[in-house]
Each structure stands twice: as C-alpha cells, then as structure tokens.
Amino acid sequence: MSTSSLAAGRAQMPEGSNRVLDERTLAASYRTLAALLKPGMAVLDVGCGTGAITRGMAELTGPSGMVVGIDPGESLVAQAREKHREVPGLAFQVADVYTYAPDVSFDVVASARTLQWLADPYDALQRMAGFLKPGGTLSVLDYNHEKITWNPVPPPSMQLFYDAFLRWRADAGMQNDIADRLAGYFETAGLRDVAVTSQVETVRRTDPDYAAKMSIWAKVAETRGHQLVADGYVTEAQRVAAVQDYTAWLETEGDHMEMYLLAVEGRVG
Ligand SMILES: C[S@@+](CC[C@H](N)C(=O)[O-])C[C@H]1O[C@@H](n2cnc3c(N)ncnc32)[C@H](O)[C@@H]1O
Predict the structure, then answer these.
(1) Which among 15, 160, 236, 260 would be 20 to 30 A from 267, CA to CA?
(2) 123 lines ligand 1 (CB under 6 A)
C-alpha cells in the first residue's frame, strides 16, 4: 500500500475524537487567525473536524461573509452541521483537500492541525494556495510532535505509547515535525510575506481546565490507540496501561506540558 493511502486510512478520526475537537475555539486554539478575518470575507477551513473553530471564523466574517469548512469525515461534517446550524454564512462539505474543486475563490484559506495527517502536505499546501483570490492569505497551524515536553516526565507506559504513535504516523509518510517545515514549503510555493508565529500550547496544573487539557494523551490512547493495536504498534495491554498510568500521573504528579505549534501565514499574488 502507498504511504498516501496508508495515511488516508490512519488519518480518519476515531470515535470519540469529537471530545477533543469540540473543546477548541478560534480564540484559544488558533490565536493568529482572528486578526486576518473581517466582516464580508470568504474563508475556507480545510480539515474542519466538528467545526468548533470554523464557527469562530464565521462569527467574525458575519452574515455578509461566507465560511466553508471541508473535511473527508462524513460523521464529523454531520456533527458540524448539526452543532452550528444557526450560524449565518457558515456551511460544511464532505471533501478532501487533494480533490476539492471549489467554484469560488477565498480571501483566506486556513488549516489547523490537518497537514500533520497527510503524506503529501506540500501538494495540499499548493492546492490550498490555489483556492485563494489574488492577494489572499494562506494560514496553516500545526505541530512538531517531536518537541512536546512534559514536566515531570510521564510514566514509561505513556512514553512507550507516544513513541509508537510517532512511528505509526511516520511509517504512513506523515511528518511529525511538520510545523518546522511549513515556512520552507510556503517559500517554495511562492507565497509572499511569510510570517511564523509560535503557538505553543502550555497546560499548567493551576489552569482551571488542566485535567481536560492534560488528558489529551489518555484520550488519544483511548481512541486512536485501538488503531495502533490493530496495526501491531502496541499491544492492547500496553495501550490500557498508557491510559491508566497517564491518568493517575496527571492527577498526582503531573505539573505542566508544552505542545509545540507554529502558525505560518503568507499571501499569494
Ligand atoms: C486533528 S483534526 C483538526 C480539526 C480542527 N481543524 C482543529 O484544529 O481542531 C484533523 C482533521 O483533518 C481532517 N483531514 C484528514 N485528512 C484530510 C484531507 N485529506 N483533506 C481534508 N481534511 C483532512 C480529519 O478528518 C480531521 O478532522
């Protein structure tokens, strides 16, 4: 099987992922984007998931604007339509960035935490740039999963699971360090005024939502973990140990975690 089809299979969001996606907001989870959005703009959100961040975009572009969220996950798009049906100017479509062919052009094309799941992110990036009006802005937010830090270090069972997770992704052609490659891709694709902004997400024990945020890796092991077991990267016992030990760790010893993300913006034309 090619890495592209392996990646497409592995990128499918497992049951239960909406718990993580629904907690995100434009203000907290895509901090550079709000400044680019004005009433009346046409905006495309690539890999919109359940639409929590897309909704925030439509609240800024207003009823005179148009925001389209695309995602290949049929159930995610159905949930997005259901949850945000009352927001004017907001629509969701089941579509894949590699084949999407919009009949309009956009002022802003944005994509958060999506290129990390693709085996050919540069192709996707070029396609996204092609969806823009002349002078339009491409904005991509993504991770370097190799630069995550926890303090203190998480239990060995979670370290084993996390290492397996990164190998499982890399073996499908996904780039675990995509955040640090984005600016080069923007330059190669001919985008202008390329700007890189650190979007590190820090979770501290003193935060009111510490447990919800810190538990992301227990949720990944609970949901994606089944795919890693099926693909032979961890055993079921190792997956369960990672969930249990990490949950106990975050309740007792865990203090803080930093997830490394960059937002990269550039203009066409
Ligand atoms: C981690 S989620 C991010 C969702 C949302 N943007 C956020 O930041 O919370 C990644 C999304 O990318 C979508 N995705 C995966 N492959 C895609 C593709 N080829 N084209 C468009 N979206 C894709 C997945 O279905 C998933 O909803």
Answers:
(1) 260
(2) no
72 in ligand 1 pocket by Cβ < 6 Å?
Answer: yes
3-267: in CATH 3.30.420.360? no
Nearest ligand 1 atom to the CA of 20 is 9
pLDDT, tens digit (0-9, with 9 covering 90-100), for 152-195? 999 999 999 999 999 999 999 999 999 999 999 999 999 999 99
- Ligand 1 pocket test, pick from 5, 20, 114, 220 with the greatest ligand atom count within 8 Å of Cβ, gives 114
Buried b (16+ CB within 10 A) or exposed e, 166-197: bebbeebbbbbbbbbbbbebbeebebeebebe
pTM summary value: 0.96
